[in-house]
Amino acid sequence: MPKPAIALDLLLLPTWLVPVEPAGVVLKEHGLGIRDGRIVFIGPRVEALKCNATETRELPDMLLAPGLINAHGHAAMTLFRGLADDLPLMTWLENHIWPAEAKWVDEDFVRDGTDLAIAEQIKGGITCFSDMYFFPKVASERVHNSGIRAQIAIPILDFPIPGAGSADEAIRQGVELFGDLKHHERIRITFGPHAPYTVGDENLEKIRVIAEELDASIHMHVHETAFEVQQAVEQRGERPLARLGRLGLLGPRFQAVHMTQISDDDLALLVESNTSVIHCPESNLKLASGFCPVERLWQAGVNVAIGTDGAASNNDLDLLSETRTAALLAKAVAGSATALDAHRALRMATLNGARALGIEAQVGSLEIGKAADIVAFDLSGLAQQPVYDPVSQLIYATGRDCVKHLWVAGKQLLDDRRLTRMDEQQLGATARTWGQRISGHTES
Ligand SMILES: CSC[C@H]1O[C@@H](n2cnc3c(O)ncnc32)[C@H](O)[C@@H]1O
Ligand SMILES: [Zn+2]
């Protein structure tokens, strides 16, 4: 008896299919089938053509991969892109960014800045991003409307911030938002204590207890600079990561962003607690913050993901170029050209990101049963020829302008480089208006 044909909403037939899991595999002459937002078929083209697909798309010269995961950023800071450049972290924050945030950041700013960030990220092949910024409820609404996937970290500092008069108020709002969105298909709420130098032990303990109760993750800037670690040692007699370990925050649900300073004891702590590290190489380079020793972490078994950080310190949200920078920098830092090869770099930008955000069971690789979060890169251009290894070509020779199509949970958000749910003209006009207002050309 012939088997009944598999029913598909969409069948994709690319030249190359890179599932990321299993590692290092490149499939040719294969198809991928989607039904109800999930991947339900991956197999040889001849078998794929036997499926009963409502729509079939041939993708010649295209590489199909899991959508990129931007594991750290401050989405609405797109509206501060280029506001304060070429400064070290604390001067940049204290003298420029925090005053600008106090003056400009309100719900409208977060709505417009987050929309701009979402559009830039979709056009750059990103299907999921992590956000840590003020008015997280507004950011969640923009994620919901746009169709992208996101982790939204509730910002918590010891002092008042836009949208919350105290850390307690921020935590309360976070718990409420967590409850409201706990069944959302694409949004995960986590807690985001800003950094060890802005959140004291009392609030960190409160966050630990609540995160444990809710089984929520904690996302935090940690060991961004040598200055942060030195100052903590001088003031408290303890390195920040050790302090977080002593307070019980480290663990598989903890996401340590930056980690440019790693002693042997720090590494042992990361390994034994199964904490993820989120590497932001371009922000670290631009602010001269330091270098995260990615290869050392990888060899020790630490899960390392990649983030762009905000557009005010990067200055773009281009995870493909970030991944290239990570691969190149890893070699320089390790003093070895074999460090972080292209296939591992792509894994860092996809599956490791999903693992860090606690959504590995849903996304991060092209596997049957996972959500259809997929990107198609066009490798037909002259700058991509000849193609020996499409993953090498993607990481070392391809820019984000080669992102052709993108789907999140099976919904197409980018079709032939055009946003399907957002108006690019409108987004550009709104961003320019904010720029004029902020730079003082028009009345505020
Ligand atoms: C907790 S909301 C975000 C808060 O963090 C600031 N910020 C942006 N980039 C960085 C960074 O690299 N290190 C530390 N803090 C950063 C942002 O401006 C907001 O105030
Ligand atoms: Zn950051």
TrEMBL record:
One Pfam family hit: Amidohydro_1
Uppermost EC category: hydrolase
Domain Amidohydrolase-related per the UniProt entry, residue ranges: 64-412
Cofactor requirements of the protein: Zn(2+)
Cofactor note: Binds 1 zinc ion per subunit.
Keywords assigned: Hydrolase, Metal-binding, Zinc
Catalytic reactions of this protein: S-methyl-5'-thioadenosine + H2O + H(+) = S-methyl-5'-thioinosine + NH4(+); S-adenosyl-L-homocysteine + H2O + H(+) = S-inosyl-L-homocysteine + NH4(+)
GO molecular function: hydrolase activity
EC number, UniProt record: 3.5.4.28, 3.5.4.31
Gene3D superfamilies referenced in this protein's UniProt entry, alphabetically: Metal-dependent hydrolases, Urease, subunit C, domain 1
Record-linked SUPFAM superfamilies: Composite domain of metallo-dependent hydrolases (SSF51338), Metallo-dependent hydrolases (SSF51556)
Record: residues binding substrate: 101, 194, 224, 309
Domain of life: Bacteria
Residues reported in the UniProt entry to bind Zn(2+): 72, 74, 221, 309
Function: Catalyzes the deamination of 5-methylthioadenosine and S-adenosyl-L-homocysteine into 5-methylthioinosine and S-inosyl-L-homocysteine, respectively. Is also able to deaminate adenosine.
NCBIfam families: PRK09045.1
UniProt cross-references to PANTHER family, sorted A to Z: AMIDOHYDROLASE-RELATED DOMAIN-CONTAINING PROTEIN, AMINOHYDROLASE SSNA-RELATED
Family: Belongs to the metallo-dependent hydrolases superfamily. MTA/SAH deaminase family.
Full protein name: 5-methylthioadenosine/S-adenosylhomocysteine deaminase
Organism: Pseudomonas monsensis
